[in-house]
Structure formats: C-alpha cells, structure tokens
Specification:
Largest sheet of chain B: none
Order of helices and strands of chain A: HHHHHHHHHHHHH
CATH superfamily of chain A: MetI-like
Distance between the termini of chain B: 31 Å
Number of helices of chain B: 15
Order of helices and strands of chain B: HHHHHHHHHHHHHHH
Helix content of chain A: over 70%
Number of domains of chain B: 2
Number of strands of chain A: 0
Oligomer: heterodimer
Strand content of chain B: under 5%
Number of domains of chain A: 1
CATH class of chain A: Mainly Alpha
Largest sheet of chain A: none
CATH architecture of the largest domain in chain B: Orthogonal Bundle
Largest interface: A-B, 98 and 94 residues
Radius of gyration of chain B: 23 Å
Radius of gyration of chain A: 25 Å
Number of strands of chain B: 0
Structural class of chain B: mainly alpha
CATH class of the largest domain in chain B: Mainly Alpha
CATH topology of the largest domain in chain B: MetI-like fold
Distance between the termini of chain A: 61 Å
CATH topology of chain A: MetI-like fold
Number of helices of chain A: 13
C-alpha cells in the first residue's frame, strides 16, 4: 500500500518536474511560433488591410491575387537568379577553401580564422562597406578606381540601369557566408578515416582521382546539408538586399526578393495588407518545404545508386 | 601523401592572397572610420588616410539623430538576455525531454522538430501581428521575448543529453538530490562546452539581427545598433566617416567574441550544419 502510494507520488513528481523543465520552452513555442502560424493561415483568407482582426472573409482570393501578381512572380524570379549564382559559387568556394586549409600544416588556424571571420560581420555593416566603398557609383569607389586605371569607364553599380547590382549582392553574401560552410566542410573532411586515403595511395590514386573517388563521395552528407542550408538561406535573403539598395527615396522597383516584396506590401510600405502578406509567407513556406523534400529525395536516390 | 615543394609554395601564395582579400573589408572599415569626409570623397582612392582622426567618434556620439549610445545599450541588453535566456530555457527543455519520462515528450519533440522545417524569417508577419496584439511594439520585451524559444537550441541540447553519461546523475539521486538540484549542480557544470557553443552562436546572431529589430524597434529609443546604422546610412543626414566609425564600434563586441571564443563558435557551427 505504502509502496503504491510512493510510486504514484513518484510519477506525479516526475510529471511536475517534466513541466518545470519543458514547460517554459513549450509555452513559448506555442505562443510565439505555433499561434502566429495558425493566425497567419487565418489572416490569409481575409481582407486584412490595416487590421489584425479582420471580418471580411475572401476565401482564396489573396492567394489567387499573388499568383497572378507580376511583382510577386518577379520576386520569385529574382530569388531564382540569386540562388542560381550564390548556391553553386558558395558551395564550390567553401569546399575549395576547406580543401586548401585542410591540407596545410603551418598557420592553418590563422587561415581558417581569416576566412571564417566575416561570419561575425552583420549584413548591415557589410552592405555599408560594399555600397559606399567598394561599389560606390561615384569616382572614389574602389572598384571604379581600379576600372579607371585599366582604362574603363565608371560603373553605376546600384543604379538599376544595368544588372551590375548582382555582382554587388552576390560577392557580399559570398564573402559573409563562405567561411561558415568552409567550417562544415572541414569538419566533414576530418571525419574521413585516414586509412581510406592510405588504401587509395596503395592503389596508385593521386590528385584529382583521390578527390573524385574518395573525398567527394565521403562528403556526401555534408554536401547535401550545405546545399539545403544555402538554398533556404538564399530564399530568406532580406538584410543585404534591403541595406544595399534602399535609399532616402525608398526601395527601388528592381531586385526585390520574396521577403523584401512581402515586407513592403504588408509592413514596410504604405499599404499594410496583412492578409496578402500572410498568404505570401504561406506560399513561401510551401515552396521551401517542397524544394527541401525534393532535394533530400534526389540525394537519397543518388546514394542508393552508389551502394548498388 | 607528401606534396612537392612547388605545390606547397603555390598553396601558400594562393592562401595569402585570399586571406588578404577576405580581410580587406575590415581594413576599409577602419580606414573610413578614421578618415575625414574630404579624404573619403576624393577622386583618388587612398589606402592610408593622410591625417588619422578621432573626431568622427566624438561627433558620432554627439549626433542626436543617431543616438549611438542608446542603441548600443539596447543591443547589449537584447544580446545578453537573449543569449542567457536561450541557453537556460533550451538546456532545461532539452534535459526534460531527454531524461524525464512523460507521455507527451515524443509529441513535444515532434512539434519542436517541425518548426525547424519552417524558416524563421518566413514567420515574420504572423510574429509581428502577435507582438503588436500584445502591445509590445517598441519595447525591450518585444525585441527579446519572442526570440527566446529556440527549437534548434532545444533540439541540440536534447541530443547532447541523450548521450550524456547517466552515472553522475545516479550518484546525485542516491545522495537525495531531486531533478532541480541534480540539473543545476551536477549536470550543468559539466556541459560548459555545449552551452558556450550555443551561447556564442546565439550572441552573434542576436547582435547582428536586423529584420526583427527593424519591425519592433519603431520608436528611435528602441532601435538596436544595426537598425540605427541602417537608418543613418539611408537618411538625408548621412555622414560617411561617422557612419563607418559607428560600424567599427558596432562590430567590436562580436569581433571580441569571435577572437576569444572561436573554438566554441566553430563547435556551434559544426553542430548546426550536420545534426
């Protein structure tokens, strides 16, 4: 009898302590993640201009409007162009840096830190350096000074009359992020057992062949993770676009990736259309989920082929 | 595998050139911070300004339209509270999920993992709606509390505690300590490394955050340093040397964290990519 009571009390105690430990996090997760998501699904079906408690149900018309809205479709195109440059370039760059740094013996820590350091810089400050010093459209910009000394004309990098703003945006993000992914690749390289290389050396494999048949296949898990992270973070690009391109007159009509566009129509611009903004975020979430799943599927297929 | 001398030399030449290129933006930041307005706008790019000046720093803190001091305090409060809070809340939750039996543990873990699939930036509109309903726009609460509950940190802690040796805790239980005392006195002092890894990543992320503070810090008394710099950069009253000295001040704390805690930062990054 007493032992049963003790047992019951023990279970009750465990229950109480479970909630003491997990409760704060779980309540926060509900209030600041789950409720907002549900709320935005709700808002997306309403005419919610300038209000968070709308009354006019409009069904799917926010979604239909966005999917026909040239500005929204253009923003998806802007993301596609951005991703088409930044994902492969960062992938190759971070892998290349990791291979280089991993092979040297003297001053390895210094070089690793030098490439990793930009990760600590904010997009606001990077944008400041890029738009005002490196790619300043005036004569005193560093790139324009260099171009002039080579006999070219000054370039108006961010004016929008040309596509040179892509150079600014891609190099900025590349500089800031490549060290982060280099760290992931270095960790991946260090997990490859050394006897794999020894066996390959005995078989006479050298240089490119070692990379092609040993190193790269062994980095499969890291490569998939890096690809996915790169794609998702490119899709969420906001900070560097905003800070590189916005001016006293507001955000220019070009180079608006999805988050910037949704910010402008729902919170940052003149019209506060939360219903439209919510519908947009749900479309983006679905796109990210589909792309992520597709990529995992493709890479899973690849690894199955490899095993057979 | 031995590399020939020529290959090694080439490798180092390439690395030194690349390292110089990667460090160049930091140099330009400092150069601009100590230049005068005329020097910065002169047609000829100068690598070293003729007369280095501290005047920009003084002028920046005296500039009432930027409010550098106030925004630095805001950033410091937000980053420190967010870091300490995230580590404490996530470590407790991770420990509870890993060690205390409960019927709901599986469901809560599943809900945590599900939110990892939803990119944080995509939920900014609904989160903003939530915070404005609570009346937390332009408050420190609004800047801090909504970002305290990291599914990612909780998941990392849970994984860590799953592999944590049980013997220590069993010894504490035999001595009559409950869950609370065991956790804070026995478990936490032995999880220094992962706390530092998650802490450094959270601190840098918080200090550099832009979109959320931009939405919440609408009143200029509640701007973080990133928002203050961004608005200074795009305002009519822009002053280039002052702007860059502000950037130098704003980057200083994260550079210190980077230099002194880099080991933990690397661990944090490694965990964030793979697990």
């Amino acid at each position: 009898m007493t032992s049963l009571a003790a047992q019951l009390r023990g279970r009750q105690d465990r229950n109480i302590w479970f909630w003491v430990f997990v409760g704060p996090f779980f309540v926060g997760l509900l209030i600041f993640v789950y409720i907002p998501i549900v709320w935005s699904v709700y808002l997306s079906f309403f005419d919610a201009r300038n209000t968070v408690t709308p009354t006019k149900f409009v069904g799917l018309s926010n979604y239909i409007y966005l999917l026909r809205d040239p500005a929204f479709l253009t923003s998806m195109g802007t993301f596609t162009v951005f991703a088409a440059f930044i994902v492969p370039v960062t992938f190759a760059g971070s892998l290349g840096l990791a291979l280089l740094v991993n092979r040297i013996k003297v001053a390895q820590a210094f070089f690793r830190s030098a490439f990793f350091l930009p990760t600590a810089c904010s997009y606001v400050i990077a944008a400041m350096i890029w738009r005002l010093s490196f790619f300043n459209g005036a004569r005193f910009g560093l790139m324009n000074t260099m171009l002039r000394s080579l006999g070219f004309e000054n370039v108006n990098w961010l004016g929008g009359g040309n596509y040179f703003y892509w150079v600014v945006l891609v190099t900025l993000r590349l500089w800031l992020q490549v060290g982060f992914y280099m760290i992931l690749f270095i960790a991946g390289l260090q997990r490859i057992p050394t006897d794999t290389y020894e066996a390959a050396a005995i078989d006479g494999a050298v240089g490119w062949k070692v990379f092609r048949y040993i190193t790269f296949p062994q980095l499969r898990a890291t490569s998939v993770a890096v690809m996915l992270l790169l794609l998702i973070s490119a899709f969420q690009a906001f900070d560097e676009f905003y800070n590189t391109l916005i001016s006293v007159g507001g955000y220019p009509p070009f180079a608006r990736p999805p988050l910037v566009y949704l910010y402008l129509i729902s919170l940052g611009g003149g019209t506060q259309d939360l219903g439209l903004g919510s519908a947009g975020t749900i479309i983006l979430t679905l796109v990210i989920a589909v792309v992520g799943l597709a990529q995992l599927r493709i890479s899973a297929l690849g690894s199955r082929e490899e095993r057979s | 595998m031995k590399s020939s001398r020529g290959v090694v030399v080439t490798r180092y030449v390439v690395l030194i050139l690349l390292a110089a290129l990667f460090l160049l933006p930091f140099y330009v930041l400092l150069r601009n911070a100590f230049s005068t307005q005329q020097e910065m706008a002169s047609a000829q790019w100068q690598w070293i300004p003729d007369n280095l000046t501290w005047d920009n720093l003084r002028a920046l803190f005296a500039n009432d339209s930027v409010r550098m001091g106030r925004s630095l305090i805001n950033s410091a409060v937000v980053a420190v509270v967010q870091t300490v809070g995230t580590v404490a809340i996530s470590a407790m939750a991770g420990y509870g999920l890993a060690r205390i039996d409960n019927r709901l543990a599986k469901i809560i873990l599943g809900m945590t993992l599900l939110t990892l699939m939803v990119p944080a930036a995509v939920t900014f509109i609904p989160s903003f709606v939530m915070v404005s309903t609570l009346g937390w726009i332009s408050t420190l609460r609004g800047l801090i509390i909504p970002v305290l509950f990291s599914a990612f940190a909780t998941f990392l802690f849970r994984q860590y505690f799953m592999g944590f040796p049980k013997e220590l805790e069993e010894a504490a239980f035999i001595d009559g300590a409950g869950y609370w005392r065991t956790f804070w006195r026995v478990v936490m002092p032995n999880t220094y490394g992962i706390c530092a890894a998650i802490g450094t990543i959270t601190f840098i992320g918080s200090w550099n955050a832009f979109l959320w503070p931009l939405l919440i810090g609408q009143d200029r008394d509640f701007r973080t340093v990133q928002v203050a710099l961004s608005q200074f950069m795009t305002s009519q009253r822009i002053n280039l040397p002052q702007l860059f000295v502000g950037a130098a001040v704003a980057i200083f704390p994260v550079l210190m964290v980077f230099i002194f805690l880099q080991r933990y930062l690397v661990q944090g990054v490694e965990r964030s990519g793979i697990d």
